[in-house]
Amino acid sequence: MKLAAIIVCFSLFFLIGCQSTQTTITQQLTPHTFQLMSVDQHTLANPTLTLRFSEGMRVNGFAGCNQFFGQGIISDDGFRVEQLGMTRKSCPTEINELEQLFFSMLSHTSTLKLNQDTLMLNGDNQLKFIKVTTHTE
């Protein structure tokens, strides 16, 4: 009986710890805007893509040609955006390819790492962002 109680206590501490980590990351991301600086360690010549985190983990931004929005989800598996929507402008090929890569990364679970002003998303590709603004709701 004591063993069962100990196991339950450790399980609760583990679950609370995971939730605490998710809450901490969410608090560190909001309310900030990040700008994409590199893809797979290749620095972008003209970085314009932004990713903004708002209250309730809502995300939006500019993908180089189109605006986007969705609901950010942080779980034990990583970060993804659900209900991803975007404008549908016709874009030059190079920008379109970057947008498609970015939208694919957002819609699939990626590892998210936040270190001061640097945000890294790692999945099929590695995206490096820097914090550019803090905003109020």
Automatic annotation (TrEMBL):
- Per the database record, which ranges form the DUF306 domain? 27-126
Q: Which domain of life is it from?
A: Bacteria
Query: Where would one find the signal peptide in this protein?
Result: 1-20
Q: What are the alphabetically sorted keywords of the record?
A: Signal
Q: Which Gene3D superfamilies match?
A: 2.40.128.270
The record, for InterPro entries, names: DUF306_Meta_HslJ (IPR005184), HslJ-like_sf (IPR038670), Hsp_HslJ-like (IPR053147)
What is the protein named?
DUF306 domain-containing protein
